[in-house]
Amino acid sequence: MYGAKGMKKHWFAVAFAIKVILASAMIFMYSRTPEIKTNADIFRYYNDAQVIYNSIKTDPTIFFKLLANNTEDSKLVPYYKRMDNWNYSYGSKIYSNNRFIIRYIALFSIITFGSYGAMVVITIFLSFTGLFWIFRFFNSKIKGNTLLIFLIVFLTPSIAFWSSGILKESLLIFFIGLFLNCGSLALKGQKPIARAIIVLLTLIVIFQLKAIVLLLLLPSSIAYLWNHFIPNQRAIIPYFILFFVSFSLASESNSFLSKGLFELLQDKQSGFIEVANHYNPKSIISPIVFESNAISIASNSPIAIVNVLFRPALWEAYNIQSYASAIENIAIFISLLLIIISPKKEIDNKNLFLFTISFALSFIIIIGLSTPILGAISRYRIIPLLFIEMSIIQIIDTTKIKSLFPFK
Q1: Which of 391, 387, 2, 393 is nearest to 159 (CA)?
Q2: Smallest Cα–Cα separation from 52: which of 96, 24, 82, 95?
Q3: Residues 126 and 221 in one domain
Q4: Which residue, among 293, 328, 323, has the nearest Cα to 308 in the 3D structure?
Q5: Residue that terminates a domain, selected from 176, 209, 242
Q6: Based on the number of CB atoms within 10 Å of its own CB, is 229 exposed (0-12), middle (13-18) or buried (19 or more)?
Q7: Last residue of a domain, one of 174, 190, 209
Q8: Is 204 in the same domain as 343?
Q9: Are residues 247 and 362 in the same domain?
Q10: Along the 408 residues of the chain, how does pLDDT read in single tens digits?
Q11: Residues 280 and 169 in one domain
Q12: Are 191 and 153 in contact (CB under 8 A)?
């Protein structure tokens, strides 16, 4: 099932085994004390899902109504009240929504009989499949770097770790991988109608999981399609137009929404600050002070990018996770230096490069502006980190570097 030209199949088995080990480590880390376990997302969503799952034993109609997100039936109110995270979100549901993952766990609990371990295995399988699709997509587009792409996709520490738990990020990776894989095959003319339908359904699910991810993915995707179907132009033009229009709409969104997107971003940050004040995490940093207007968002974007890509530094690390993130950040810095030392003379696929870099940077800016907790940043950044790494290897002359450090 998992395989690629130039990679032996047993390496995929090794990568999957590593995910299982990391999932076990995550469960151990967040089960050390009852207080830690109560506040851990990997258990919070599951606990709420069991409220829905257990309802099937007494009244199956209640189960299916809860699964369908029915909010009209008064009989469901006692069940909703027992779920601590159903309506719980830092700020607006545009930036995060717990209901889809809770219903996902409840649905699969029918198969697993409510077993947490079985649910972890299913989620690992889905996230690994998503990573494989992402690997296959980039491996088909970026030639001569199969091993490097494999290492980035499957063995980047934060990506491997945070996609191994029952978390939204694991599901997002699955659906983004499905989006890239089906979209790419559809553009090649392989069952385009069926795959286009799958792509549309995938986008709906991404919107349900985290609407902001879809809002960030759409401009890059539309610009990519624009260049694909109308190639005789400068590749950057569609991206400039789409992001200019998107940014303009976001800055004026308070005129057609009850609350503007930039105001909702402020609410998201305020929610994190409230959580930080309550739990006092060691990884809290000074929040970026910004106003809900285009100029303030743009002027504060550079520091947001720095916070996401380069913090924590080694001297800010305090546990295994933060040290792993710090080392990862050093690797990012070194890779940026390699762009200067060994730049590629010509980008092979400018459209692909602009797609990956535009999606990654816009995602990183949102995370940096909204999240003043480094521990949370290391988790939330795994998807844009994957795309920024794919961007970097497209503009580095890896052939030249391989000649200096030959590996066989």
Answers
A1: 387
A2: 82
A3: no
A4: 328
A5: 209
A6: exposed
A7: 209
A8: no
A9: yes
A10: 788 877 888 999 999 999 999 999 999 999 988 888 988 999 999 999 999 999 998 889 999 999 998 878 888 899 999 998 887 655 556 767 899 999 999 999 999 999 999 999 999 999 999 999 999 999 999 988 999 999 999 999 999 999 999 999 999 999 999 999 999 999 999 999 999 999 999 999 999 999 999 999 999 999 999 999 999 889 999 999 999 999 999 999 999 888 899 999 999 999 889 888 877 778 899 999 999 999 999 999 999 999 999 999 999 998 888 999 999 999 999 999 999 999 998 999 999 999 999 999 999 999 999 999 999 999 999 999 999 999 999 999 888 777 766 544
A11: no
A12: no
DSSP string, 107-155: HHHHHHTT-HHHHHHHHHHHHHHHHHHHHHHHHHHSTT-HHHHHHHHHH
* Whether 291 and 323 share a structural domain: yes
Which range marks the domain in which residue 193 is found?
Answer: 1-209
Q: Which residue has the tokens 């385009």?
A: 192
For residues 261 and 144, state if they share a domain: no
Give how many domains the chain has, as a whole number. 2
What type of residue is 326? A
Asked whether residue 157 falls in the same domain as residue 275, the answer is: no
Task: Please indicate, yes or no, whether residues 69 and 116 belong to a single structural domain of this protein.
Answer: yes
